[in-house]
Design goal:
Strand content: 25-35%
Number of strands: 11
Helix content: 25-40%
Largest sheet: 7 strands, mixed
Order of helices and strands: EEEHEHEHEHEEEEHHEH
Mean pLDDT: 94
Length: about 220
């Protein structure tokens, strides 16, 4: 099956305390987003589609020239929300026998094994949601205080979230945006799709704060 990666990058860097959007901040000397694209391109025959806000596209093109970044990729214009951005990006992928991995642009430490396993499960089962088990105990707040929950029943959700293209396109085209859609799998689930889990990697962090950037630098150094 044809393989696509839809890299969604629409952050503004507010939690990073920076005027530069977080996906463009430097990690080991190059913008974070370039690490992310390179990770997917390390697997042959993956078509890359980068979704960016309209007002960031010129800056990205400038960065590509500055850092001699020539990895082939298409650019799609994002929307006001992540839901709209993903929906816009999906229109760049033709209907048919194809898989698409939707991935956060600020998860640059995604491993090749996780990418491959995500595509493999999606090809077999129709979709693959990358998750990791909880390490810490968890509690639920209640009217009377709180109560302990069994952490083995819960997972932290990561990306990529990989789908057969016709199924995820149909889900986005036949639903209205909702606050309940916290990720792409929840959109498919809303139209009756059964979600299948694949284990990810604790190193596959989402860079949203200065501490995350320090951690990512350390992981890339080792």
């Amino acid at each position: 099956m044809s393989k696509y990666a839809l890299i969604v990058a629409g952050g503004k860097g507010l939690r990073m305390g920076s005027e530069i959007p977080k996906q463009f901040m430097l990690l080991k000397g190059i913008p974070i987003l370039m690490h992310t694209l390179k990770a997917f391109r390390s697997i042959e025959d993956i078509h890359l589609i980068l979704v960016l806000p309209k007002d960031q596209i010129a800056y990205w093109n400038q960065l590509c020239q500055q850092y001699n970044f020539s990895l082939p990729h298409q650019i799609a214009t994002g929307g006001e929300t992540r839901f709209q951005s993903v929906k816009n990006g999906l229109q760049f992928i033709p209907d048919g026998d194809a898989l698409v991995a939707v991935h956060d642009g600020v998860r640059p430490l995604i491993s090749i094994d996780t990418i491959k396993e995500s595509y493999e499960l999606a090809e077999k089962m129709g979709n693959a949601l990358t998750v990791i088990p909880l390490k810490d105990s968890i509690r639920k707040q209640t009217e009377d205080g709180s109560r302990s929950l069994n952490r083995s029943d819960y997972f932290l959700v990561q990306t990529p979230q990989t789908f057969k293209i016709n199924e995820i396109k149909s889900a986005y085209n036949n639903t209205h945006e909702s606050n309940n859609f916290t990720d792409d799998a929840s959109v498919l689930e809303a139209v009756g799709g059964k979600i299948h889990l694949v284990y990810g990697d604790y190193k596959n962090i989402k860079i949203t704060s200065p501490e995350d950037l320090i951690f990512a630098e350390a992981l890339l150094t080792n």
